[in-house]
Design a protein that fits this description.
alpha+beta, four-stranded antiparallel β-sheet, 18 strands, about 30% helix, globular
């Protein structure tokens, strides 16, 4: 806890996300600012609120907040990802120490060539450290632009997530929505047609796609898919075209000035239905500090090619759905889930009926001497959706070892916060082990990049979609046709 002698204008209360329940007192519920790194942040001015915290809240931090009118006003949560000890090299620890020293200095936020197309105005005020513990912290910066740029200055395994200026809704997943997922769980059985459909996902198509997105094939010219970089616009246009060629109706969703758009694609239900099943990945990327190159082959090119090749298989088989299906490639994930937060808010504002949402983020790294794996979130998400995915994996991709991961959090969190059933699929049970995570060497042509594992997890994501949405084959098409690839 950081204490200053002046009277604080508010208290930042930081609690475990699992302690945010419907029965928390209104003084907390009405001052909820979001979930950051598995912790919930509240900003309260009624200090007596701390005296009526529920007994279930057994740990947390309270930080006096001082924001002078002429100083930094935008709060940013900074968080170290859950990483394997093998990644804690002396070089990395030096990066973290240098970053801490930079925060404590009088230097200004640096704008990096090639990473930013933000407006060039007056030099911003220096960042101010508000709170820090072993693997997270809160920094005050001048404004949203400075918050976006701060993400380019972080150590390689850290992320920056802007804390909103005003409270956000604290929406639990309704019991009726959870019960609907449980009904799918209870009815889940092996379906030979589902197996025939998902088994047709092509590793070779995935290889071509990822080599285009990383420019390993030399054809796209994409140097970076960072959300501020022009390469992300090339990627967005290409993805939209590919999804449309696969029979989807697509649109760009602009959400913040300067950012690449979300690519939102949809297959309408064959008959009238409000139910929607949504699967996604994020196509923006992040490279090594100070380098423009950000190929994002695994993070999250792998999740992007998963949903793209699901779309291709939908086209190839000619299946139609009994529920609406959306495939979304998000941008702004690396700057704090910004694209998915905007879309989840839009859907909530429209009263969208989301059966479930599954985000695919980092599917490709296969650590040496380990089996192919599927990691599901230990902390953030709907347990029933995670259990459904685990059960589907046992049926359609039994080669995967399934377990929980502490890696957190991707775009599924945005939907979880809006009260939608959601989970994530990830490449490993346990923490992140990919040595090229947030690195300019995140390419597909390297040791440990396993497209067969990507295909196995993609089959799970697709099979879960098919069971949740319901589907029909074209008239006259049967299992033998699927197995022949007709």
């Amino acid at each position: 806890m950081i204490l200053n002698p002046a009277t604080p204008v508010a208290l930042l209360t930081i609690l475990r996300a699992s302690d945010v329940r419907p029965n928390i007192p209104p003084c907390l519920a009405n001052n909820f600012y979001g979930i950051f790194g598995q912790q919930s942040v509240f900003k309260i001015s009624d200090f007596a609120c701390l005296d009526i915290l529920p007994a279930s809240v057994d740990e947390g931090s309270v930080v006096p907040l001082h924001l002078p009118e002429d100083g930094p006003q935008q709060l940013v949560w900074i968080q170290e990802s859950s990483i394997d000890n093998s990644l804690r090299t002396p070089e990395y620890e030096a990066e973290v120490a240098d970053f801490d020293a930079w925060l404590a200095s009088e230097k200004r936020v640096a704008y990096l060539d090639g990473q930013s197309i933000l407006s060039q105005g007056a030099e911003p005020s220096p960042p101010s450290l508000v709170y820090r513990n072993a693997n997270s912290g809160i920094v005050a910066v001048a404004d949203q632009d400075a918050a976006d740029v701060l993400s380019t200055r972080l150590p390689r395994f850290w992320k920056a997530l802007p804390i909103p200026a005003s409270p956000v809704s604290c929406l639990p997943v309704p019991s009726a929505a959870v019960e609907r997922v449980r009904d799918i769980l209870v009815s889940l059985r092996f379906d030979a047609l589902v197996a025939g459909i998902v088994n047709g996902i092509s590793v070779e198509h995935m290889r071509k796609d990822i080599r285009y997105l990383t420019n390993e094939d030399g054809t796209s010219g994409i140097l970076s898919r960072h959300s501020f970089h022009h390469g992300s616009r090339i990627a967005a246009e290409w993805l939209k075209t590919q999804f449309e060629d696969a029979g989807a109706t697509c649109r760009f969703m602009q959400f913040l000035e300067g950012f690449a758009p979300n690519v939102v694609c949809r297959y309408d239900a064959k008959t009238e239905s409000s139910n929607t099943v949504l699967i996604s990945g994020h196509y923006d990327s992040r490279g090594s500090f100070g380098m423009e190159r950000a190929p994002g082959g695994n993070d999250d090119g792998s999740g992007t090619i998963s949903i793209l090749n699901i779309a291709r298989r939908i086209k190839q088989t000619g299946i139609t759905f009994r529920s609406n299906v959306e495939l979304v490639a998000f941008a702004g994930e690396e700057q704090g889930l910004l694209g998915s937060k905007a879309y989840a808010r839009e859907l909530r504002g429209k009263g969208a009926n989301i059966t479930l949402m599954i985000q695919a983020d980092m599917l490709a790294y296969h650590a040496p001497e380990e089996p192919p794996q599927l990691g599901l979130p230990q902390f953030i998400g709907t347990p029933e959706v995670a259990q459904l995915v685990a059960n589907v994996s046992a049926i359609y991709s039994p080669e995967l070892t399934v377990g929980l991961t502490t890696a957190c959090c991707s775009d599924h969190q945005s939907f979880h916060e809006q009260g939608y059933p959601a989970t994530q699929v990830f490449e490993r049970t346990g923490p992140i082990a990919d040595p090229m995570y947030h690195n300019s060497g995140d390419l597909s042509d390297r040791p440990g990049y396993d497209l067969n594992q990507v295909r196995s997890i993609s089959k799970v994501q697709f099979a879960t979609l098919l069971h949740a949405a319901g589907f029909d084959l074209p008239e006259g098409v049967d299992l033998e046709d699927l197995e022949r690839g007709d």
